[in-house]
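Note to self: keep these together.
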Amino acid sequence: MSAVTASRCLILLIVGVFVFVSAGQKNITAESGQDVTLTCRAPNNNIIVVKWSRADLKQEYVLLYRDSHFVPDYQHPSFKNRVDLQDRQMKDGDVSLILKNVTINDTGTYECHVVQRVRKPTKLISIVYLHVDPPGVEEVSVVLIVILCISAVLLVAAAVGFWIFRKYKHQHSRDSIQHPSEMQQL
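Structure:
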């Protein structure tokens, strides 16, 4: 397992402890600067409205798509020109969100809601928790792992050296007690 994979596993484990994970929730970890796809698939393709939101944005949306058009009036400014649908025709109910050039400010819980022709109320389809690592995190993780490994080797070497020293000192002390006449001749 690489250091990057190990650090991501650790981050996901920590996030999993602090975030309530429902049956439909997915967790994604990304690096700052990457493009990320937040998946969401509705039961059929009779979709007339797609709303991607984040609770902390209050009344503004990450993306609002209605009647085959984006509605920028209610979009949060930080997502303007950075989001798109993976498939604007929403074939097979695919309403996945592409979030471009993610930053640590994009970390949060995203909800995908749809309105279908046959069912007018908004229906929650998917919840995705996105965690974005700041730039350079994987380099810091690798350096930290190397430092910890070197420290562990030095600690083991010091313990073995101390054990050998004590054994030698103990043996030398026992030899001088067993042969006191030799000590007097010196």
